[in-house]
Here is the input.
Amino acid sequence: MRKSLSLGIVLALGAALAVGCDDGVDPADAGMDTGVTDPDGGTEDSGTGEDSGTDEDSGTDMDGGPDDGGVMGDAGPPGGGAATSAQIQAVLDAADGAVDLMIDDAIVTYVKPAIGTELDGAGFFVQAEQMGPALFVGVDPTGLSPAVAPGQVVDLRVTTRTTDTDSGIVFASAIDMWNVDSEGVDVSTLAQDVSAVDLVANLPLYFGELITLTATTETGFGFAGSGFSAAQITSAGFATADTSFRFRVPDSVLDGSQLGSGCTVQIGPTPLWQFSADAQPSAWRDGDYVITDCQEPAAGELVITEIGYNFAGSDADLEFIEIYNPSSSASFDLNGCRLADSAGFTGMDALDIASSLILGPGQYATIAGSMSEIMGDATLPAALEFEGSDAASIGCACTAGADCAVVVDTVDWSTMSFPAEMDDVSVQLDAAAVGTDGATTNDLLSLWCLTPDGETYGAMGRRGTPGAANPACSPPAVVRVNEINANITGGCDLVELRVVSGGSLAGFELRERTSTVLTFPLGFNVATNDLIVVHFDSGDTACTGGGAAPADEVLTPADQPALTFPTNYDGAFDFYSSDSGITSTDNVIWLRDPAGVVIDAVLISDDATGTAAGSSESAAADVAMAGEWTMVGGGVPAGGFVDDDFNAHAVQDSNATGSSASGESLQRNDDDDMNDRDDWVQAASSFGVFNTGQSPF
Here is the structure.
């Protein structure tokens, strides 16, 4: 999930420096120098404790006055001040090539890590005054001793001055006579707030100097050199987004961060970088920037992707909801937004998100109960329970005590309930549906499923993937109508379906004529060769074995065994429809998937000739157009399956089957499907087992 962001730079210092306080002898020129060349020509000073006057610095070290006559820093701010700035400027003004330019008492403001290639290698910046100038020293700090760290007061000699032909950066590419005078300077005192400065127009004045900047990211992050990405930004001093003004970060910092377009960012203190004429305020480490705010999402810009709604025992403090940002470039802040159940945004249990909750591109936020074993980004109150609800919504632009002006996303499962049989299992949106239009596709409940086996969280091993990408749901199953009896006394009719190819039946509809008689629930998965028996007239105890209708079997065919529920079939999943029974005259029994695609159909009738009901003819037209019913040998009558042509090509005889479940039925006679009446026969019922002539696929 997102990285925690903290302001500040943490660097390990190298070996301890024996500096102490000045007592009239500066360690840099007291005859004790080691590891560098002494500027007066020898490898060591004369041991007198004072320079002879021949040093390049004229015997004056800039930290305390002539001949180190005082304590380090006793002449004002640390470093050499204007004199050191003049030395830095001399390097910047020199021609490329070999030089012999001393810099005394400069302050190391930032140590740049090695990232990418060429000038994106390691180095460090030195500066003496807040108003600059500054110099980038493009040498590997790990090769220097003592080690380089921010806040050190240092001496060095520039031996090569270089201008990079691609970026235009002037830098010191070789140095010697490296020495650390002291450490511990608060470099933030050198930082300039340049929020109101046009850094592009004034780039030569500010390059390399330590800056802070309040900016707004106007675009997503894109390629900005090997190992780096950058986004166009605006500020008080640069109000129109342009490629010449970009916030640049290493990909290692960007990955997993909340950075994206639409955010206010506090950058620095870090040195200003450039590429040619482009100003590039930069963050080389996580702590080099802080996101203070991001845009609120508009409708559809965030997606509800997972809900933990049903748990063993009480659901209080265990539920969770997962929200995903599908954008590849934009970040959003849910601060001030609201989470609600079916009671709506003005409901008593709605949750106001009262602190910053930022989702960067491709990131998830999880709002979870306090006992959920989930490190949520916000806490879901126990009063806001999704199990007793049939909707979950995110709203923004909310008014206290009133509604939210923007509905970002809603999942409404009132038309196809989430199954209550599965404790400790979340429901989730199929991985393929989590995209840029996810807030629309997640309205299609058939694209939701129970979290698959093996995907668990927490010590309790509950199934779910809160805060992580969802796995794929099962593909849609392929199913056929396999057996029908529309003539059972009291309307206790039966329809059997056979699974040709396993998968999900969530949202599939069993239809009679133009009406839906049953919609299969979310999470109902079946295997190849499974059978499903749909029982009609569930409100009639004569059809349910004398009591209330058994619960639908969504887990296994043995969930509600026939020993306890005598109308059930142990060899099939049993479902109950409240429809009062199948019309036993002309009829169309058919299946369609959640997208409305016809999966299978059969035309039945009680007569070989005569008129047909308009709703039968309308349904027949739909299934014929889908190629799921034809005349024997193929084709459709010129006028369609209407009246005599309907009856002549339908399976006979729907009202001559048995009046009980054990009587004869209309059933498929083999494993083939030619989509015509010759696929069917009238024979002894075989609900719950394969028909005569059938074998496993």
User: Anything to note?
Assistant: Residues 303-463 form one domain. The CA atoms of residues 398 and 404 lie 4 Å apart. The two ends are 44 Å apart (CA to CA). The chain has a mean pLDDT of 88.
